[in-house]
Amino acid sequence: MHILVAGGAGYIGSCCSEYLLDRGHQVTVFDALLNGHREAVDPRANFIEGNLADLEIIHQAIRDSRPDGIIHFAAFIEVGESMQDPLKYFRNNVSNALNLCQAACDNQVRKIVFSSTAAVYGMPEHIPISESEPTFPINPYGEAKLMFEKILRWQHDLRGLQYTALRYFNAAGASQKYGEDHHPETHLIPLIMQAAEGKREQISIFGDDYDTPDGTCIRDYIHVLDLAQAHLLALENEFCGSLNLGSGQGHSVNAVIDMVKKVTEKDFRVEVKARRPGDPARLIADSSAARDILGWKPQFDNLESIVRSAWAWRQRHPDGYIS
Ligand code: UFG
Fold first, then answer.
1. Among 152, 268, 301, 313, which one has the highest count of C-beta atoms within 10 angstroms of its own C-beta?
2. 5 neighbors 29 (Cβ within 8 angstroms)
3. Whose CA is nearest to atom 18 of ligand 1?
4. pTM of the full predicted structure?
5. Ligand 1 mean position to 187 CA, how many Å?
6. Catalytic status, residue 321
7. Whose CA is nearest to atom 36 of ligand 1?
8. Where are the domains of the chain?
């Protein structure tokens, strides 16, 4: 297949592009390089620098490259920032994404696979979380992702566009070539690694008084290459709708810190701080639908292998990407 990857210079988009190329597919990366990195674009891919805000550019990119499918990763990702500047999130993650959707439909692209999030569930009542859990986002980031899922569903119902929305839990880990390099970094595993590298004085635990066995929040960490596998399967599959992607295993913040200490063989200061507003105590996926429908088989089945891959990438890229 020829696949257009919007946001292919970002963390998950770069790993996914590499995964597709390794399997013989042709890839066109479309990225504005606002948060993505030119170095994270696989040299085997065609690269178009462009912003989804510009309908003509994405229209032309799709007209020229004639992709069989599109994977849409291009979005702002910071939950906290979305609370400070909601319109920034609705403008980019909904309004600009509409241009991609329109260009795809106008050019008869068969399918869009959309990068969605567990944040659509907000504070879920049932753990593990299945797709039948009600969606009540508690921040503009999650709301914008849910809005675009609904837009895709209407385009499916009314215009015949095929789509799969993949709701990731906590993406983590790295491939041999590509990894996580956000500015600013807000995610737990890279922040702990910065502490292990001596680049930050300490790691803060945001609350140790949750209703969990050790009092710290529990999350479901899923390897970025397992996410990549699911995107390819979703492109190949006729299923239209939303699917959760997680490992089904929960790890507390304390357990993740201990794992990073074990893998890196480094010690560092850990400090307990106040809760971060909007953090649910537990988020664990029920991904049985993705396994059953797509035949998805995650390869990284434990936290240690995820953390090891992230650490190996950081050791090869001690300063992240340069560009
Ligand atoms: N945490 C700390 N200290 C830190 C950073 C994080 O204790 O310095 C804690 C958080 O409070 C949370 C856990 O570590 O309990 C994981 O936090 P992350 O910020 O790494 O990830 P989140 O679970 O908040 O968010 C992730 C994605 C979002 C997505 C969300 C919904 O980053 O994009 O999952 O599933 F919306």
1. 152
2. yes
3. 187
4. 0.97
5. 6
6. no
7. 119
8. 2-172+222-245
Kindly report the CATH number that applies to the domain delimited by 2-172+222-245. Answer: 3.40.50.720
Interval 251-262 mean pLDDT: 98
Give the mean pLDDT of 274-292. 95
Question: What's the one-letter identity of residue 148?
Answer: F
* 283 CA closest ligand 1 atom index: 35
Q: DSSP readout, 53-89?
A: T-HHHHHHHHHHH--SEEEE--S---HHHHHH-HHHH
Report CA(253)–ligand 1 centroid distance (Å).
Answer: 9
Structure tokens that stand for 52 in this block: 């989804």
pLDDT in tens, 63-100: 999 999 999 999 999 999 999 999 999 999 999 999 99
Residues in the chain: 323
Atom 14 in ligand 1: residue holding the nearest Cα: 188
Annotate 175-205 with b (16+ C-beta within 10 A) or e (fewer). beebbbbeeebeebbbbbbbbbeeebeebbb
In ligand 1, which atom is closest to the CA atom of 253?
Answer: 14
